[in-house]
Task: inverse folding
């Protein structure tokens, strides 16, 4: 973790600042803001990428199943094992905390997310998600827990100097905009009826789709959707879900965002700490078998592919099966014989948690859970205390999201890495002060997390890439279960792929064990 | 001599600017939008000064006498300007007319001063020195006034006395000018007499400034404000007019002591009298203790718990003599326990059950209050209901906010409660409604407690009958994730206020 106060001040900056202070020209009344970078993944990741040799082995263990990666996919794989009475596994997580993109933090004001912060109400086809939420007590006799559903008002948009509740107010600005918006809805209804778009994708997945051969922007052009408002909204949707602009995202992925979900209740499901709540509940079940700060350095198939050796910085696990639920771009650096790197790019993101002394200046509709500024380079913020049931008011925490889509990923990643903490604060505050003038004066602290590789970018052609099918068809001893395998970084996708890989691994172990004893029912 | 003359310039300039600032500040206080008010006042004032300067050409003879007369006029009009404006705001509809008239008159008079003074001095000094010195001291006076006004005058004197104080300065300048220009003045005695009279009136006004201000403020409110305080949650204002004591929270009338018994008898007795076995009662909201007063009429009630967010409210209604008299000293009753907490979180944190629960929250005018009208809240309430227990919910007006009223009723049913809606007329509110809810259907009581002022058993049954214009509407239940009630209420309120 880097020290935020250790940002060196150049001599020139010091002299300028000192002179400014002498004549009273420092920023008016803005109290000092505390905070810093909250990061722990990067250095370990780069040791892996750069092939720096791991330390000496201090521990050797035999375990039937190793799960590599403790994000939603890995924890879901472990959850599946537990549900089927299988506990002979270990989850190895690189970071100090499990959860991946669903990790969360907390301070004296509130818990808050560090990434994924909601799950759309799972429709009837998302049976695994429904199963999990039933187990967690959120779905009882077909009714969703009202307190967990996002409270009113869910979202608002800032445009023309004011907040407006909901999204339709913006889209319906002019007659032509409204006409295009309703035509857009008709197109989406038709696509929905095609059954091609489902959650999870595996439930209705087409081998290939014509809509995956062009970008979302090209599709909007082709369909003559020229409304600035509608195009902003479409671009916002893919930046928000995939960290990818409409110029780069596959039209199929973009349309999936609008079409695939079939909720039977107004949602989404959300918690102060975002999907960190799900992580916590999963850890209550699988936690004892999760090892954090255990970066996997090598996965080596042995015994003619019937076993595998998993090497961390200081331990070696000999296993019969391995479920890979870490980001896929890491796999070529770690898995022996993985072959060429998957053809994919990843999206860099910046997430900041702002602790506020009080609610800042605000014009227009009432504060919502999700607050988006139209034409902003960022994605707006979610309010961590929105789900509180008391009268509200007072201190709060905002989680600000920013997918860096303007430059191509590598350049954006370098710029992100070069960013100092004061730069990051300025970026966040300058963006949010469009809607909240004087925000700086009520901010107590800003904690920032930079994700160099937050998620896979679903670019045109992603659906039919041969390497994805090859990974899905794996016959062991490594099964791949990260959301990257499908290409859409969504909770339901991570869960679906994690469970699929766990199921395949358990079947493999079951076949081996069948000769000795019949394990609990492994097939469902 | 020269110093005295230029000190005069300095003083009259300061006086002129003070009147302008008083008018601008007063308009900002009373009308709001300070940018507009100050811009208009400054603009009209400067233009009027231009008019005054232009008019000065028509003053040909008796320059010095005219100058003194103008000084006395400025002293009178400027000195009394703030008092006049306050009274105009309090007692007439024509505040803006008075404001711009006074600004114009003072502007014209002040505009006359400097040209006349320069012409008076032209004979004694070189013209270039006159222009240079008069303008220098004019601007210097303006600077002094603009510094004194916010730092000394407004905080220490207030607007009324600041204006009167500078009126006195103007009158003194007039008197002093009769000495300065004694050589060119025809009849100084008449002017001096007038000057002394003006001075006396202004000094008397200055001494009585506080009482003047109070008289003006009394007119600002319909009734006398006897208490006003902003708490972290709301603005509490109490007014009295004759025997009518009124409570306002955030400018919304909560009760009038003339008819609150109608509201509170109707809120409590139809439900509580129907359960003779009731021992434990919970009140949510109701920090005025008036619902408690009705509850404590039942000797069978052994515990009454009140949960109200605002400790300032319950403290006020415990300690204030008139208010404690109104609620019959209910907060001092040994059966009563008060918790200053948020109702939702308090219910979540406790598991006590109650035979009767009174829900008396403000109307659902925003999402924060709207949470207390949701299926989630009513399901939580149900968990705190003893067997045979019942809830009564303040449900706004079934006439003015018909969809809102029936939405609350629908929401209670959605939480698996049997409902019994009813209504009555409260003069200060209009037609008002409540909903009773419980596990079993409601059966009206056989008897009511003694000593009521409104409710009778015969009066009860018609309350549960709704005339055609208050009948149910098709509405959705109000949920945390879909607060339709706030939207119904907002829409219905817009229509009333149109």
Result:
């Amino acid at each position: 973790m880097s020290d935020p106060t250790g940002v060196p001040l150049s001599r020139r900056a010091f002299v300028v600042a000192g002179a400014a202070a002498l004549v009273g020209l420092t920023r008016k009344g803005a109290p000092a803001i505390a905070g810093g970078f909250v990061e722990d993944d990067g250095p370990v990741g780069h040791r892996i990428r750069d092939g720096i040799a791991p330390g000496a082995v201090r521990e050797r263990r035999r375990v039937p199943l190793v799960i590599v990666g403790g994000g939603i996919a890995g924890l879901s794989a472990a959850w599946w094992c537990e549900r089927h009475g299988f506990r002979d596994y270990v989850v190895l997580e690189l970071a100090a905390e499990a959860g991946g993109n669903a990790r969360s933090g907390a301070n004296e004001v509130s818990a808050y997310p560090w990434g994924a912060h909601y799950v759309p109400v799972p429709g009837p086809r998302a049976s695994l998600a429904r199963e999990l939420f039933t187990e967690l007590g959120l779905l009882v006799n077909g009714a969703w827990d009202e307190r967990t559903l996002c409270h009113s008002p869910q979202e608002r948009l800032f445009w023309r100097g004011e907040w407006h509740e909901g999204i339709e107010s913006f889209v319906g600005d002019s007659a032509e905009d409204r006409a295009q918006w309703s035509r857009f809805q008709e197109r989406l209804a038709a696509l929905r009826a095609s059954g091609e778009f489902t959650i999870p994708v595996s439930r209705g997945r087409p081998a290939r789709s014509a809509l995956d051969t062009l970008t979302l922007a090209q599709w909007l052009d082709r369909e003559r959707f020229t409304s600035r408002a509608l195009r902003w909204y479409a671009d916002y949707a893919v930046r928000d879900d995939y960290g990818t602009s409409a110029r780069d995202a596959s039209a199929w992925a973009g349309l999936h965002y609008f079409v695939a979900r079939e909720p039977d209740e107004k949602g989404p499901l959300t918690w102060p700490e975002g999907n960190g709540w799900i992580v916590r509940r999963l850890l209550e079940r699988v936690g004892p078998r999760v090892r954090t700060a255990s970066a996997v350095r090598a996965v080596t198939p042995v015994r003619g592919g019937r076993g595998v050796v998993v090497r961390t910085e200081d331990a070696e696990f000999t296993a019969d099966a391995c479920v890979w639920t870490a980001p896929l771009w890491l796999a070529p650096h770690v898995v022996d014989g993985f072959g060429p790197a998957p053809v994919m790019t990843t999206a860099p993101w910046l997430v900041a948690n702002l602790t506020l002394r009080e609610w800042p200046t605000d014009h227009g509709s009432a504060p919502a859970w999700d607050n988006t500024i139209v034409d902003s380079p960022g994605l707006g913020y979610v309010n961590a205390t929105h789900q509180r049931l008391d009268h509200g008011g007072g201190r709060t925490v905002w989680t600000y999201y920013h997918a860096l889509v303007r430059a191509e990923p590598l350049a954006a990643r370098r710029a992100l890495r070069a960013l100092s903490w004061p730069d990051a604060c300025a970026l966040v505050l300058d963006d949010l002060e469009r809607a909240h003038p004087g925000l700086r004066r009520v901010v107590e602290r800003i904690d920032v997390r930079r994700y160099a590789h937050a998620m896979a970018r679903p670019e045109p052609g992603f659906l039919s890439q041969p390497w994805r099918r090859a990974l899905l068809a794996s016959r062991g001893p490594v099964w791949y279960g990260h959301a990257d395998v499908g290409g859409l970084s969504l909770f339901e996708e991570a869960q679906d792929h994690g469970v699929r890989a766990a199921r395949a691994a358990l079947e493999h172990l079951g076949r081996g064990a069948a000769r000795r004893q019949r394990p609990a029912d492994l097939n469902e | 001599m020269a110093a005295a003359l230029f000190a005069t310039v300095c003083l009259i300039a300061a006086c002129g600017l003070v009147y302008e600032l008083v008018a601008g500040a007063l308009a900002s206080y009373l009308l709001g939008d300070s940018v507009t008010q100050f811009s208009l006042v400054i603009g009209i004032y400067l233009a009027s000064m231009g008019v005054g300067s232009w008019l000065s050409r028509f003053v040909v003879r008796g320059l010095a006498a005219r100058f003194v007369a103008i000084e006395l006029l400025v002293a009178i009009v400027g000195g009394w300007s703030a008092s006049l404006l306050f009274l105009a705001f309090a007692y007439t509809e024509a505040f803006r007319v008075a404001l711009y008239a006074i600004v114009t008159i003072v502007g014209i008079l002040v505009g006359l001063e400097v040209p006349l003074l320069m012409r008076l001095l032209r004979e004694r000094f070189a013209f270039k020195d006159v222009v240079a010195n008069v303008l220098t001291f004019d601007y210097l006076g303006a600077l002094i006034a603009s510094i004194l006004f916010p730092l000394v005058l407004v905080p220490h004197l207030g607007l009324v006395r600041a204006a009167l104080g500078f009126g006195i300065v103007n009158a003194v300048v007039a008197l002093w000018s009769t000495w300065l220009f004694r050589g060119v003045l025809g009849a100084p005695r008449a002017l001096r007499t007038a000057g002394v009279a003006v001075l006396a009136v202004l000094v008397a006004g200055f001494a009585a400034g506080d009482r003047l201000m109070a008289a003006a403020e009394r007119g600002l409110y319909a009734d006398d404000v006897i208490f006003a305080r902003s708490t972290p949650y709301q603005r509490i204002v109490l007014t009295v007019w004759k025997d009518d004591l009124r409570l306002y929270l955030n400018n919304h009338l909560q009760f009038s002591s003339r008819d609150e018994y109608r509201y509170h008898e109707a809120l409590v007795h139809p439900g509580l009298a129907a359960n003779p076995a009731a021992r434990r009662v919970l009140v949510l909201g109701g920090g005025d203790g008036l619902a408690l007063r009705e509850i404590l009429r039942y000797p069978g009630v052994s515990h009454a718990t009140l949960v109200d967010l605002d400790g300032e409210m319950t403290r006020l209604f415990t300690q204030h003599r008139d208010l404690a008299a109104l609620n019959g000293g209910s907060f001092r009753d040994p059966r009563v326990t008060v918790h200053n907490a948020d109702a939702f979180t308090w219910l979540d944190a406790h598991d006590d059950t109650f035979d009767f629960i009174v829900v008396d929250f403000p109307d659902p005018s925003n999402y924060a209050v709207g949470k207390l009208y949701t299926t989630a809240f009513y399901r939580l309430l149900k968990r705190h209901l003893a067997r045979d227990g019942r809830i009564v919910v303040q449900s706004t007006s079934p006439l003015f906010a018909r969809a809102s009223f029936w939405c609350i009723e629908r929401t209670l049913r959605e939480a698996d409660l049997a409902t019994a809606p009813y209504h009555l007329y409260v003069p200060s509110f209009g037609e008002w409604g409540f909903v009773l809810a419980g596990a079993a259907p409601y059966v009206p009581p056989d008897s009511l407690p003694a000593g009521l002022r409104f409710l009778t058993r015969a009066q009860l049954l018609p309350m549960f009958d709704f005339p055609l214009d208050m009948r149910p509407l098709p509405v959705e239940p109000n949920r945390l994730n879909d607060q339709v009630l706030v939207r119904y209420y907002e829409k219905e309120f817009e229509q009333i206020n149109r």
In short: Chain B has 17 helices and eleven strands. Chain B touches chain A at residues 232-233, 309, 342, 344-345, 348, 366-368, 370-371, 374-376, 379, 479-483, 486 (CB under 8 Å). The mean pLDDT of chain B is 90. Residues 259-497 of chain B form a domain with the Rossmann fold fold (CATH 3.40.50.150).
